[in-house]
Design goal:
Elements lengths: L3 E12 L2 E12 L3 E6 L5 H8 L7 E6 L2 E2 L5 H8 L2 E4 L11 H12 L4 H14 L16 H12 L6 E5 L7 H18 L2 E5 L3 H6 L3 E6 L2 E6 L1 H5 L4 H7 L2 H7 L2
Parallel strand pairs: 3-8, 3-9, 6-7, 7-8
Antiparallel strand pairs: 1-2, 1-4, 4-5, 9-10
Helix pairs in contact: 3-4, 3-5, 4-5
């Protein structure tokens, strides 16, 4: 059994009087591509934000790379953040910076590497995600939606993370672009040996690249496991996701 890299136990999340998660538990192993899926408002992105310390749950334990992030010092939290990369749904690139400057920013903030080496690393990451070399000098407003995703991914990979967190990585992409991005993620996992945790609505991603996943609904995890394990669960939410028209069509391909 591979090492556990993310372990969430009995997570309770409350916004005001609204309960988002009621004793949710998830375990993610090293090298997996793991997905969180569910309907809008089910708390998928919130759960991811708790993993990366943007939101704190009301109760429960979260362990990432062997560290309890619910009881961690600011210094240790800063160190831990250098061990993961995050691709936000919108890309979240700095609009006033070029692609190269966006990718370089974490290297400049967290390392003492010389500028020439940073430039080399930036060029390598831009190439790694399939962007042409000239994209380095472009600003976000000059990029297509697919290029923004790839530039944001290059930035997430800048520090050679152990975990890559992706929030709706294929949203806004056409079917061809989404398939190419899925294959890029699969290739990066094989090349770098990273663990990938993604929030997605894209059933094609679940069918084609995800190893295991959890389905959220009604404040709980209603099913968790491999595709075969999940689709054989007898639950109304599973029926809607995988046995409705879209799911049925995909299962026949």
């Amino acid at each position: 059994m591979k090492n556990i890299v993310v372990d969430m136990q009995d997570i309770v999340t409350v916004f005001g009087e609204h309960v988002i998660h009621d004793r949710v538990s998830i375990t993610i192993h090293e090298g997996e591509i793991y997905a969180l899926i569910g309907g809008s408002g089910s708390g998928k992105s919130t759960l991811l934000k708790e993993m990366i310390m943007l939101i704190r749950p009301k109760s429960g334990k979260i362990n990432v790379l062997g560290m309890d992030i619910t009881a961690i010092s600011a210094e240790k939290a800063g160190e831990l953040k250098t061990k993961w990369g995050v691709l936000f749904q919108s890309g979240a690139l700095f609009s006033s910076l070029t692609v190269a400057e966006n990718v370089a920013i974490t290297l400049q903030e967290y390392t003492d590497l010389p500028r020439q080496l940073i430039n080399t690393i930036v060029a390598t990451k831009i190439d790694m995600v399939g962007l042409p070399a000239h994209a380095a000098s472009l600003f976000p407003a000059q990029l297509s939606g697919g290029m923004i995703k790839r530039a944001s991914l290059a930035r997430a990979l800048a520090m050679d993370p152990q975990i890559l967190f992706l929030d709706e990585p294929t949203s806004g992409l056409d079917p061809v672009g989404a398939e190419e991005f899925d294959q890029l993620i699969l290739g990066l996992r094989e090349l770098l040996g990273i663990t990938v945790v993604m929030v997605t609505h894209d059933l094609d991603s679940i069918w084609s690249i995800v190893d295991r996943f959890s389905v959220l609904g009604n404040q709980k995890i209603v099913a968790s496991g491999t595709l075969d394990e999940v689709i054989n669960c007898n639950h109304p939410i599973i029926e809607k996701f995988f046995k409705g028209t879209r799911g049925s069509i995909r299962s026949k391909l």
